[in-house]
Specification:
With 113 residues, this protein is mainly β. It has helices spanning 5-8, 19-22; strands at 28-37, 44-45, 47-51, 69-73, 79-80, 87-100, 103-112.
């Protein structure tokens, strides 16, 4: 199932993700977006933030938590790093708060790219 940012951006209710996003918990989904690396290696990364548009975390302030997804590649996988090339991430979505250098993130993927 492919999920668009319009679904993920729906406002939370009572401090919790909206009901549509909660239904995605634990499901295997795909989402397109752009990479913000969380590692210093400029060539490949094993973890990054997925954001709805290129350069989203470079500007201040960072996007709200429901517009950033923390992605950790499975099996020590690595992905070619690019700030400007769109990617599609597929994996199991977990709704949880993750602290990052760019701000809190409300969704986490264990994913393949």
């Amino acid at each position: 199932m492919t999920v668009g940012w319009s679904t993920l951006k729906l406002p939370p209710t009572a401090g919790q993700p909206n009901p549509t996003v909660r239904q995605l918990q634990g499901k295997r989904v795909s989402i397109p977006g752009f990479m913000v690396p969380l590692e210093d290696d400029a060539q490949q990364v094993t973890e990054f933030l997925l954001v709805p548009f290129a350069g989203a975390c470079i500007h201040v302030p960072p996007p709200p938590p429901n517009q950033m997804v923390y992605v950790k590649l499975i099996h020590n996988g690595k992905a070619k790093m690019s700030f400007t090339e769109p990617i599609v991430v597929t994996g199991v979505l977990k709704i949880t708060t993750v602290k990052s250098p760019y701000g809190d993130v409300s969704m986490r993927w264990m994913a393949t790219v």
